Amino acid sequence: MSARAEVLARVRRALGRERADPDVIRAEADGLVGELAAIRPPVGDHDAVERFIAKAASERVAATVERLAAADDLPDRVAAYLAERGLASRLAAALPPALAGLDWSGLTLADAIDPNEAVALSWAEAAVAETGSLVVASSPAAPVLFNFLALHHLAVVRADDVVAYLEDAWQRFAHAPLPRALGLVTGTSGTADIEGQNIKGAHGPRYLHIFVVDRF
Amino acid sequence: MTVTYTSEHFKREARLALDQPNLQRALDRTTTLLQARRAEAYRAFGEFDAARAAGSRIKDHVLRHLDHYLETFEANAEAAGCKVHWARDADEACRITTELCRRAEAKTVTRVKSMLGEEIGLPEALDAAGFERVETDLAEHINQLAGDRPSHIVIPALHKTREEVSDLFERAHPPHRHIDDVAELVESARTTLREKYFAAEVGISGANFLVADNGAVCTVTNEGNAELTMQLPRVQIVTAGIEKLVPSMDHAGVLLRLLARSALGMELTQYTTFLTGAKRPGDRDGPEEMHLVLVDAGRTELLGDELAPILKCIRCAACINHCPVYGQIGGHAYGGVYQGPMGSVLTPAMASLAKSKDLPHACTLNGRCDEVCPVAIPLTGLMRTLRERTWRQHLVDRPTRLGLGLWGAVVRRPALYRPASRLGVRALRLLARGRPALRRLPGGGAWTRSRDFAAPPPGGTFMARYRRGER
Ligand code: SF4
After folding, report:
1. Domains of chain B
2. Which of A 107-126 lie inside 8 A of B, CB atoms?
């Protein structure tokens, strides 16, 4: 007997029954998350974008956030971020079409990421007000490493893409196969493994800077 | 790979732990902090009871339909380009994993700690097969350098002080200089590990959840090491216990909210990632192959047993952080890979009760673990079940059996018990000479070695005071 057949047979023996009806199981499973309102933290009456910004900038998530009225301002604001911190004007950037058309002439953009890259700019498909999380999804235009490797992680999200809850975020991916890597980024790479001291930049980003953009 | 973890020497190890002031300090600081953070997170959440009832029901539901969810997950994961393997036991799981590494012609294997990996002895199996194994969790990196085992399922190097870490890093990390500052120590590990992430041919992790209806593997970390371990090497392998399934993303969400709050008092860990399959056409990064090993290793046996509720465990460690016994003796005394209340149930349940018979007894039945468990596992109840089994299987030693037998005979006969307890109370008060507690007790050295024995209050036995109307 194959390991697969044997494990499944052991499960059925332990449960003392043969196959159950999938429709019945599905109905039962749906019922278990039917009343989400009672088991989610209240997000409050705030506008979701404001709540997201407050959460992301809170002590626990510790991101810095800038709200931009128009995407046209983005290249200047990225340049300002680098200048204020004395960083070189080169960065690795994974730009979706919505951003690629902007005037980036003041900066050197690399479309591949170096193992010791200082700054990377990436695009978030959505953001979650409940937790202050960015939702990043892999695609040919959005390599995964841009979110996890550089010391400074710069991320762009559209204000219209801010949702209230986690469930609203994955609802957006429900109608196609899930992106190969779907990530919730809620802060930076941190550790408290040595004497409980919180240190940022354990493996990946030490700084997270988020641009929330109202208009494209 | 069969590992020689053993809980046989629990009593001796526990006694040793009580004599280590460093360990005592580390335990005290960390568990107090984690308890406070968890309490604060749930105060802000406001919905703990309802959320925990929902989490518990989801886990019960999955266990009741485990065959259905395993098959559904397998079909969806394979459709997304992940190869699913099945392992009956620990040896088979390690064999499959090392064979995949060999086929990938791996020299270096990076790893994200997973409790299942520890349980099945995967680190040892990788070492024995000759791969350079690189643990990427900072704490596990420290443990690997020290040759230590994890002492806590969430904070595995809780037992190490900064000075000890400093010595280890000075020896292992070029340019071998002495560092005192914690931030600089972390930076030194970052530099060393960064090279390994890029050098590795295979990356191995566990899973926090397996999502049946889309075949996704969910991992949560604060360090973000899972992301680098899973995305950079050419081959990615996930090992996961068969109990990790959830029906859908929404069900995962309910449990994610509970997990982060219970473990570290956070709303969500810093990185939560769902992975489905290998690199897709056009992708510029990601592994060429993704494999998942579904491991039974004793779980199906538990499923049909009274101890089945322990299969609901999401490895949050809240019960450990709130356990007064763990708070005194730390993790290593438990011998296995799991600690505290969940360890005292899992280790005897999965390995052998004969070899870990002391674990279910290392409990004061104070019930704090039951109160904090986010999936409502009746931990003290399960420990009682195991205690009964040690009794029935004649694993309790002769003096204890005789003593308990004698005790039973006396308490069942009030005519004997009452005068005996009157005598006892008088003797203890005499010994205490008016003090509220005894530091030493003749014949009770095992108790008084690490704590006082409360002297009986004035006024005689309970029955005597009850009759006088003291309530
Ligand atoms: S038994 Fe409950 S409290 Fe303990 S680790 Fe498991 S889920 Fe957490």
Report:
1. 45-299 (3.40.50.10420), 398-467 (no CATH)
2. 112, 115-116
